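Input set for joint prediction.
Command: fold jointly, output tokens.
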Amino acid sequence: MKYMLIMRATDEARESYEQVPFKEIIEKMGAYNESLTKAGVLLAAEGLADAMTDNFLVDFSAEAPIVTDGPYGETHELFSGFWIIQTSSKEEAAEWARRCPLGPGSTLEVRRVTEMSDFAEFAETDALVNEAAWRAENGQE
Amino acid sequence: MIDARRTVDAVWRIESARIVSTLAKMTGDFGLAEDLAQEAVVDALAQWPVSGVPQNAGAWLTAVAKRKAIDGWRRRQRLDERYRAMAHDLDEAGDGEWQLIDDSVLRLVFITCHPVLSREAQVALTLRVVGGLTTEEIARMLLVPVPTVQQRIVRAKKTLAAAQVPFEAPDPNEWSSRLGAVLGVVYLTFTEGYAATSGDRWIRPELANEALRLGRLLAELVPREPEAHGLVALMEFQASRFAARVAHDGTAILLTDQDRSRWDHAQIRRGRAALLRADGVGRGRASYGLQAAIAECHAVAPSIDDTYWDRIVLLYEALGRLAPSPVVELNRAVAVSMATGPANALRIVDQLAFDGALRGSHLLPSVRGELLARLGRTEEARSELLTAARLATNERESAVLRAKAAAL
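tokens >
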């Protein structure tokens, strides 16, 4: 099964990061990523830019989607990066999440990535049709 | 309240290779290292529900196992100098930072895939110690009873001890054949999951995913070995088709009929990246690299007709020269049938049949049946397909072949 580790940072986390040399943060994160890679569990990972000038928001509440520059600040919790890992259990995903070198003000939200089998009810419609056809072709009921 | 068993299993899953290889390096004895690690796991099961999971669980397990080693030696009547020194060193060595110890993990992989072991023992031991799976998980994946897995592991450890296999990386002159053996174990594990030879299920994705994980781990350990990356690429490409390969009723869907939109395109991208890494080493493509390149042709083709069949034929020719085998030749025949028509392909298949290759396997008659059907030789085709259905050991596969014969 696959899990997405969603990193969120509050203003508190940002402030505490500013106390630490950037090089140190990069090195710790690098070592963490390396441990995921070396264990063969890492499928994808990206960090997200937090400069307001790079980002925007598309709101679908109105009839036509509205593009604005934010606001993100209201939540005080920016989605700042993610990993997708493949593990054999929820507990294993939790173990990996615990090892992430984050500090106060940061959270990791861990979500299972859906797979084909989660949509069995939809696949079924197609498959049932196919199966019925196969049965008819083969002289079964 | 934590679920101790599941938490300990999760830690073992992540740390087993590092724990056992660290202990084996310290003691020089792989079997002892594995026993000590297991004893530490038992301690963890008793203690963690009370004390909580330690911050660095892997280091905790290693420290406990080490302590057991020291106590064991101290209890010995014949406490010779060697053991005294070793006990002292172990005692003094700090647990310190958990370091990356690729070298020891690599030695571990070479041990669990050692040529003195049977294939079955290699697979079980590698899944247990390197993959960090529990005996129960391995039994479920391999479709054998738990005691069978236990016996295989116990026996494997005895065999390694009897053969006095040192906990060392192989000599340079043995390196490539030993690496080949390791890759072979990983791929065998994968193919057992991909085209299950036993049981009524076509694909056992857990087992295949496990092999993929081992493959990625291995490629990281030996990044300068193109075949390690080639094997990862091959497995990624093949696994990318899992979702499209089995119909809802459990029957197999062949490549021709698969809904390509259901292929896992993120996985295909990972496969292509791994193949690029293999090529990037600059030593050309060997067996796994060539097979991966063939799989890549399929993975990027929009349909069976819009597949670069000429290139696939070339790749099979190269593969056949490097690693001649009737299965490769049969696959080349299929590619030739797509590139230049069934008549040319039938000549290759007839030659194989004449040579008596693949006797007793359903593969040859099933391909021959397909080719004959395309040539309009319906009666012969039906007979070949039914022969293939009789020979197929996988029930699902047999059903597909019978259905094909009936549809002619």
